[in-house]
Amino acid sequence: MRIAGVAVLLAGVGLIATAPPASAGCLYGGPVISKCDGPVQPDGTWQRCIGVAQWVPSGLSTHLVPVKHCGVMGPNQQSLDFVFADPPTHIDG
């Protein structure tokens, strides 16, 4: 019984060790709070999400709230927003 448990554990470790990396990465700071890329898809595209601060009125005051914007990056994809499209390549983690 003990040997079977060890065999199952080793099989699970082997699967984790051979799994492909997610290849997702983030950049923090600069003109945005964060800029993160999802994994590259088979067609060469990936999803990029940026976090920006937005002023929100609150009674007689205002406060900043993080807002997430996402779009597709990759070959044949063009963004007119320089902040969103920089860098034009995938951010690897």
Automatic annotation (TrEMBL):
Residues 25-92 form the CDGP domain. Keywords: Signal. Coiled coil: none annotated. It holds the Pfam family CDGP. It comes from the Bacteria. InterPro entries: CDGP_dom (IPR056271). Residues 1-24 form the signal peptide. This is CDGP domain-containing protein. It comes from Mycolicibacterium agri (Mycobacterium agri).
